[in-house]
Specification:
Order of helices and strands of chain B: EEHHHHHHHH
Helix content of chain B: 55-70%
Largest sheet of chain A: 4 strands, antiparallel
Structural class of chain A: alpha+beta
Radius of gyration of chain A: 36 Å
Structural class of chain B: mainly alpha
Radius of gyration of chain B: 19 Å
Distance between the termini of chain A: 99 Å
Number of strands of chain B: 2
CATH architecture of the largest domain in chain B: Orthogonal Bundle
Strand order of the largest sheet of chain B: 1-2
Largest interface: A-B, 47 and 54 residues
Order of helices and strands of chain A: HHHHHHEHEEHE
Number of strands of chain A: 4
Oligomer: heterodimer
């Protein structure tokens, strides 16, 4: 076998192997050109090409029946096992998320904020610490606000101080905070809060828009 | 499976077929993003896109219809539960088919193929059937029988190529082997198919 024959045989084998995907149009340009050059001079490969085309037609005619199995699968989505998996997955994701340094730092800041805010509220609620006859009556909240999850304690503090707002309560189950802002400037404070990038939501809560 | 314009080259026609259903890859990716947020409606849409394709793929691998349902459901449950881990480095269809292929191989280990129906070629149907329909039915039976002569790995490659219109690189990713192995499997599978089909080769050209 001379080099030329060996080369032709290799080319024939390569082209023949590629033929099924040539037939379905799945080859890149170089491979397609290789097959076409070879096809023009190879009866065997042209026969193989005809066979591949026939097979593709026959396979396409074998249309599978479309099953109505969706309801069966839908039931599995609601199964206790699926819920367990979901709870486990989400708990794992939450733990992984908390383990990230930036999130852990934020969570610590939030915790610190809650402890400080809680201490202040607790101290305000203790009669023993009030000066006689001088304690102001407890103020009710007139604004409810939610902050973006990545807002730090110092950013929240700065926002409250900058708007003359004080923390009255929260976080609520929905992570909202109850604030007391000066009644006369409440509308302006609400607008400033809403335009702040750290604030998700700020609404009056006593129905008085003043 | 859609066909797009036929190209005439060197006296032969090639069928340039897309490997997917009418929904574009973009739509599928959008659905997957919604599935990551546990959107059941999006999951139902994806299921309806993939169910016929997977059913067709799996019946060639596991043979038992009940097992096809089981493997198909298991595959889609994995999609539902691990959609968040799909990084998009491969096509969505490649990822889904690869899950189905692995599930099918595991199912086969538990449930081997049912025994062959030995009376296949002598059976006479009691139902009258028009000639053309009878002829088509015979062809399908013959093809099915020939496919049974192939190994599971060969059947997967043949079906992914001829029916699903996938390229050999995608197939290699689905079945987890080198691209040259895919080409070799297809090469030998075609030889065995030709030998196993009834009649002469000319009947199949």
């Amino acid at each position: 076998m001379n080099d030329s024959t060996a080369f032709d045989l290799n080319l024939h084998k390569e082209a023949e192997e590629l033929l099924p995907w040539y037939t379905t149009g799945q080859l890149d340009r170089a491979e397609q050109a290789l097959v076409e050059r070879h096809l023009s001079g190879c009866d065997e490969c042209r026969g193989q090409l005809a066979f591949d085309r026939r097979m593709i037609d026959e396979f396409a005619a074998l249309t599978p029946e479309i099953d109505t199995g969706w309801m069966r699968l839908r039931a599995r989505l609601e199964s206790p096992q699926s819920w367990k998996h979901r709870v486990r997955t989400e708990a794992l994701a939450a733990w992984r998320s908390l383990a990230r340094p930036s999130v852990a730092a934020f969570a610590f800041a939030q915790l610190l904020f809650l402890v400080v805010a809680g201490s202040i509220l607790l101290s305000l609620s203790r009669p023993a610490y009030r000066a006689l006859a001088s304690a102001p009556p407890p103020q009710s909240a007139n604004v409810i606000a939610m902050f973006r999850p990545n807002t730090t304690e110092s950013q929240i503090r700065e926002l409250l101080q900058g708007n003359g707002a004080s923390l009255v309560g929260g976080p609520t189950p929905a992570d909202a905070y109850l604030l007391r802002v000066p009644a006369r400037s409440r509308q302006a404070v609400l607008q400033r809060l809403r335009s702040d990038s750290h604030v998700l939501m700020a609404q009056p809560i006593d129905g008085n828009p003043s | 499976m859609r066909e797009v314009p036929t190209v005439n080259v060197a006296g032969t026609a090639i069928r340039r077929r897309t490997a997917g259903p009418p929904a574009s890859a973009l739509v599928e990716r959008e659905l997957l993003d919604r599935i990551k947020a546990h959107d059941v409606d999006a999951f139902e849409r994806l299921y309806r896109i993939y169910q016929p394709r997977l059913a067709r793929f799996l019946i060639n691998l596991v043979k038992r219809p009940q097992l096809v349902e089981e493997v198909l459901d298991d595959t889609m449950m994995v999609v539902w539960q691990t959609a968040g881990s799909f990084r998009g480095t491969s096509k969505l269809s490649t990822w889904v088919f690869a899950i189905a292929y692995r599930k099918a191989l595991k199912a086969r280990a538990r449930w081997p193929d049912p025994l062959e129906d030995g009376e296949w070629d002598t059976r006479v149907s009691n139902d009258p059937m028009p000639d053309a329909e009878l002829q088509r039915s015979r062809i399908h039976d013959a093809l099915d029988r020939a496919m049974r002569q192939l190994s599971t790995e060969q059947r997967a490659v043949v079906d992914l190529t001829y029916f699903h219109g996938l390229g050999y690189r995608d197939i290699a990713e689905i079945v987890g082997c080198p691209v040259d192995t895919v080409k070799t499997r297809m090469f030998h599978a075609r030889r065995r198919l030709k030998q196993a089909l009834p009649g002469t080769l000319a009947d199949w050209l």
